[in-house]
From TrEMBL:
Name of the protein this chain belongs to: Alkaline phosphatase family protein
Tree of life domain: Bacteria
Protein's organism: Candidatus Thermochlorobacter aerophilus
Sequence ranges assigned to domain DUF7800 in this UniProt record: 28-117
One matching Pfam family: PhoD
The PhoD-like phosphatase metallophosphatase domain, residue ranges: 154-403
Length: 452
């Protein structure tokens, strides 16, 4: 009789404990996600379904007995129940495993939870080899709010394909969500759209073990083709801050989402092509995409950079000479000013990345007495494909690089210090390589002036 009572008590305790663990798992809305990585700290992100206390525990994979903890943060409705926590007990060049705790209970995930810190290599070794995934235009269907007809989003398995390539980081090139008509005029709508997109099951493993950086374009800023006059842009900015883990949002007094990060011997300059943009149809007054202050910051930062590769990421195409849709050619004066200033300042190693166009291509702009400028336009991830690209008069397109299906790219930076190379490889949604091109760092150098 006593043993039966003892068994009953144990059974009740087991189900109570199991229920508590299940309750914490059901509180998880999306994530965990890795944000920026530095040598001395890493950002970890998570979203819950309701107010909850969240914390991460982590350890060096080579020393699992020494466990560190982040601070505990209470999620709140004000920030859409998101939390960004800093792992600050880390060392350079290490790989870590981590666990998520909600209300003091560990939340199990059916995929690896790992992050890394950047390598301390300068004055010590050759630059490390590393790989950055990139892409744009991620439309996730929600029939209640989508336009009638054929679903616009498709091929969600692309996120599994990216994950299986094991990149070190991913740079999202804008239109990372698609605000609908029901979304962009309210805080509730904007945050709901972010939540719906971020909660996609196929996305979770990629979020959990690859470091993520992002810029925006029109669809994560407001209505289609919107500009800086959009009345609700501050709400869009606050939502972007809540759902991404960039090192900063704006630089100094410069508002918006522009920022900069480094990985190995590459500096990445993330531009805001919406916050300061003037209407494309405006006929009087200044016409700009970046705005004077942001353009000045970019040039100053490029000149100051000592990186082998200087990667400029912007939502829309820069080098395509055809003034269609929202290409920079529609703002010809500022576009030319940007290109001319890069040339006059003799800045080596510049590469452009862009999204937006719903097709992928590599553009090369020859320059007199300098190296050619390259731009990889990479789109779409899961949204519809634009089939008119082959009829555009982009005479700068590199032959064999046009892709008209869902795709992503990997940027592999490799080689010894004096032999660095960038290899751009584009893959379809199933992870099959579609094309690959390599660019030597020595081919991105401003020629040394000859002494007469």
């Amino acid at each position: 009789m006593r043993s039966a009572r003892h068994f009953t008590i144990l059974l009740v305790l087991f189900f109570l404990a199991a229920g508590a663990l299940y309750a914490q798992s059901t509180l998880l809305q999306s994530g965990p996600m890795l944000g920026y990585s530095e040598m001395r700290e890493v950002l970890l992100w998570v979203q819950t379904k309701a107010p909850a206390k969240v914390q991460f525990k982590y350890w060096d994979k080579e020393n699992p007995k020494q466990v560190f903890e982040t601070e505990t943060v209470q999620t709140s409705k004000e920030k859409a129940f998101t939390a960004s926590l800093i792992a600050d007990r880390v060392s350079p060049g290490k790989k870590y495993q981590y666990e998520l705790y909600i209300n003091g209970k560990k939340v199990e995930r059916p995929y690896p939870l790992e992050f890394q810190t950047q390598v301390l290599w300068k004055y010590r070794t050759d630059p490390p080899d590393f790989t950055i995934a990139t892409g744009s235009c991620a439309y996730i269907n929600e029939p209640e709010f989508d336009r009638p007809g054929k679903p616009y989003g498709q091929g969600y398995e692309i996120f599994k394909a990216i994950y299986e390539k094991r990149p070190d980081a991913m740079l999202w090139l804008g239109d990372n969500i698609y605000l609908r008509e029901a979304d962009w005029n309210s805080r509730t709508g904007i945050y709901q759209r972010y939540q719906h997109t971020r909660s996609l099951p196929e996305l979770q493993p990629l979020l959990a073990s690859v470091h993520h950086y992002a810029i925006w374009d029109d669809h994560d800023f407001g209505p289609n083709d919107c500009d800086g006059s959009f009345w609700n842009k501050e709400q869009a900015l606050e939502a972007f801050k809540c759902f991404w883990g960039n090192p900063s949002y704006g630089v100094g007094t410069l508002r918006g989402i522009c920022t900069q990060f480094s990985w190995g011997d590459a500096d990445f300059f993330l531009l805001d092509n919406r916050y300061y943009r003037t209407p494309q149809a405006r006929k009087t007054g200044p016409r700009t995409i970046l705005g004077k202050e942001q353009l000045e910051w970019l040039i100053n930062a490029l000149v100051a950079s000592k990186a082998t590769f200087k990667v400029i990421a912007i939502g829309g195409q820069v080098l395509n000479p055809v003034a269609v849709y929202e290409t920079y050619a529609n703002y010809a004066e500022e576009r030319q000013l940007l290109i001319d200033t890069i040339t006059k300042e003799a800045i080596s190693g510049v590469i452009f990345l862009s999204g937006d166009r719903h097709f992928t291509e590599l553009t090369m702009l020859p320059r007199k007495d300098s190296y050619p400028l390259y731009e990889l336009t990479c789109s779409p991830l899961t949204s519809g494909v634009f089939k008119g690209a082959r009829d555009e008069a982009n005479n700068l397109r590199v032959e064999g690089t046009l892709v008209e299906e869902q795709n992503f790219a990997l940027l592999k930076f490799s080689g010894k210090r004096e032999e660095r190379m960038l290899t751009i490889s584009v893959y379809n949604k199933d992870g099959k390589e579609l094309w690959s091109r390599s660019i030597k760092a020595t081919d991105l150098q401003v020629p040394t002036q000859k002494v007469e």
